[in-house]
Amino acid sequence: MATKFLDPAYKGSINQSFREKRFNFFLDLLKRVDNQPPIRILDIGGTEIYWERMKFSNTNVHITLLNLDKIEVTREGFTSVKGDACDLSEFRDNQFDIVFSNSVIEHLFTFENQRKMANEVRRVGKYYYVQTPNYYFPLEPHWLFPFFQFLPFNTRVYLTNNFNLGNYSKSQTKDAAIQRVEEVKLLTEKQMKDLFPHGKLYRENLMGLTKSLSMYHFPEIQNT
C-alpha cells in the first residue's frame, strides 16, 4: 500500500503538499468569481474530507458533491447527490458557478466517456477546474509503479492481480484486475486541451517534470 510519504491522508506527505499548492491556485481563481453568494460549486467525485484537508472555510460557498452513490455529509454548506459524471442531465445549463473535479476524469474507462464528462462540465458550469495526473509522468500515481502506464496490458493485469501496489491491494480475481486496469486512462496535455478547448492549462511540476495537469476556465483578471 502507499507509504506515508506518498499518501495524501497524511499531513506531511508529498501528495498532500502538491494538493494544497494546487488548491491554493484554485482559491486564487475563486476570488475572480464576483457572484452573489452563495457561489455554487459542483464537485464531481468529491468528499467532505477533501475540503476539510484543504482547510476550506468559505461560508459564501455551497458545494454539491456528486458521486456514483450518495454519501453522508455533516458540514453546513455541503450537499451530496448520486450521479454520473458522463451524464449530468439532471442539471440545467450553467446551473453551477463552478464545476470542480480532482483526479476523476482518468477513471472513466474510455476517451469517449472522458469527452462526455468534459462536455457536461462545460455545459452545467459557468466556470470549471478539472485536474488529472499526467500520462507522461514516470511514476504512475495509482499503482505507484514506475512506467506502469507504458507496460503491455497483460503485464499490468498480471501485476494488479498478484501484488499490492500503490493505492491498490492485489485483485481477488483476474477479471477484477482487468476491470481495474481498464478503468484508469491517464490523459496527455494534448488530450486535456482537446477536451477543454477554451480552458487554460496549469502544470504541476516535480523535478522538472509535469506531474499533473489542470484545465481551468475563469474570468480574466481586469486591469485597473
UniProtKB/TrEMBL annotation:
The record's listing under InterPro entries reads:
Methyltransf_11 (IPR013216), SAM-dependent_MTases_sf (IPR029063)
Q: Which Gene3D superfamilies match?
A: Vaccinia Virus protein VP39
**Natural source organism:** Algoriphagus antarcticus
Protein's name in the database: Methyltransferase family protein
Give any single GO term for biological process: methylation
Top-level taxonomic group: Bacteria
**Domain spans labelled Methyltransferase type:** 67-126
Record keywords: Methyltransferase, Transferase
- Tell me one Pfam family matched here: Methyltransf_11
One Gene Ontology molecular-function label: S-adenosylmethionine-dependent methyltransferase activity
